[in-house]
Design brief:
Blueprint lengths: L8 E7 L6 E9 L2 E9 L2
Antiparallel strand pairs: 1-2, 2-3
């Protein structure tokens, strides 16, 4: 999974690379560092 650090807060749905089920991805970047990350089932 590739995250874009130029986007400071982002939330989106992406299919899992292993099982193909949808995942809700949320992350926060501050000063070019990942400070919060969550991935959970979107079903």
């Amino acid at each position: 999974m590739v995250l874009d650090p130029s986007v400071h807060r982002h939330s989106y749905v992406e299919d899992c690379e292993v099982c193909c089920n949808p995942l809700e991805i949320r992350y926060t970047v501050e000063d070019d560092a990942l400070v919060d990350f969550e991935a959970k089932s979107a079903e």
